[in-house]
Amino acid sequence: IVAEHVASTEPQNAGPTFRVVAHEYLRWLEDVRGAKPSTLRDHRSTLSEPDVAVLGGRAKTNGHVMRALGDRPAAEVTAREVENLLASVEKTGAGPRTVNKYREIVLAVYTYACRPATFALTSNPAHATDKRRLPQRQTLDTYSVAEVEELADALAAGVHRDPARPASTDAEKAEDRQDAELVRVAAYTGLRQGELRALRWSDVGKDVLTVSRALSAGVESGTKGGRVRHVPLVPQAAAALERLRERGDFTAPDELVFCNWLGRPLDESALRRRFMAARDAAGLRPLRFHDLRHTYGSLLASGGVPVTDIQAAMGHADVQTTARYLHARQASEQVDRFARAFSEGVD
Q1: What phi, psi does 231 have (nearest 5°)?
Q2: What pLDDT digit, counting tens, does each position of 168-178 carry?
Q3: Strand 57-60 versus strand 51-54 pairing type
Q4: Crossing angle for the helix pair 170-189 and 145-157, nearest 10 degrees?
């Protein structure tokens, strides 16, 4: 009688919890798939616990996923539960893109868990949830060459600094000059910020830049597309790099082109803050640092460069990503043909 009572009251083994499956997925993502550090950081943040101990205190994290699903047997989670999770994220004021990111990560966890070699789950409840509709993509806004130069000049002049504390040391003045040249190289080569911060002098040839690495979450890795590419070095970018070569240190082949006063990689957030401060001080439109890359693509497209050449230079895996730079050019090229269609038969 006692044995039967114990057996009836013990919880049945329903398989691993979602938490266990998620942790195994993160391990696989890092060790087997070799995901970029920034990708791992995003996934770990989304799959983080509601509370994380930090220096004896409690540092709040979002924790939405683990709060909703962490203790549930992974095989028993329903589409309704995943949908409720997404609704809870929406209630925080998150936009459709963020909500979709949560959905995609839960979907990825279950896709991993349904493989026979892992947990062999039989269904993916995230498949039955609704993907949020994204707002219409805005028209690309980019800088002109004149605006790029205006921004670079603002950085070189140190206008982004506190007026009460202008650049006074040689190191601060050198940082301002380097930021100016970095903006030029970004706009005239289309390199991503992580690629710029990982660029070494050995990558700079006479007529071409070799892009083979990038900094992701502070860790050097391959490029976003996982392929080495060669970018034509136009005169404006070449001149900016030659001016940087004139500095007294950090110009050896294995040293960074853009670095701090110790020769180490630039801090991503600090660089972005200096960019925005100079942009605002110069009275330019509030574009992002990444829009310097869009500026490069747009300038090439407006100059008549073939889409396949732009794709190769920018490292796009899909030509449709590059095609967005062509829309304005295609419309302008059609003006004459459209005008002739309406002029036929007119006296």
Answers
A1: -110, 125
A2: 888 899 999 99
A3: antiparallel
A4: 170
Beta bridge partners of 199: none
Token reading at 131: 């993907």
Q: What is the DSSP letter of 314?
A: H
State the greatest distance between any 2 C-alpha atoms of the chain, in Å, as a whole number.
Answer: 106
Residue 219 is encoded by which pair of tokens? Answer: 């860790």
pTM score of the predicted model:
0.80
pLDDT in tens, 124-157: 999 999 999 998 877 788 999 999 999 999 999 9
Task: Name residue 209's beta-bridge partners.
Answer: 204, 231
CA 317 to chain centre: 15
> Could you read off the pLDDT of 246-285 as tens digits, one per residue?
998 999 999 999 999 999 999 999 999 999 999 999 999 9
Beta pairing, strands 208-211 & 57-60:
unpaired
If you search the block for the tokens 């030509």, which residue do you land on?
319
Cα–Cα distances in angstroms (integers) from residue 184 to residues 237, 265, 313, 328, in the given order: 6, 18, 16, 24
Length of the chain: 347
Q: How far apart are CA 179 and CA 30, in angstroms?
A: 33
Q: Does residue 231 contact residue 208 with C-beta atoms inside 8 Å? A: yes
- For residue 12, pLDDT beyond 70: no
pLDDT band of 342, cuts 50, 70, 90: confident
Rounded CA gap, 230 and 211, in Å? 6
Distance separating alpha carbons of residues 136 and 285, to the nearest angstrom: 21
Query: Measured between alpha carbons, how far is 303 from 321 in angstroms, rounded to an integer?
Result: 18
Residue 147 token pair:
């605006």
Residue 109 to residue 114: CA distance in whole angstroms: 9
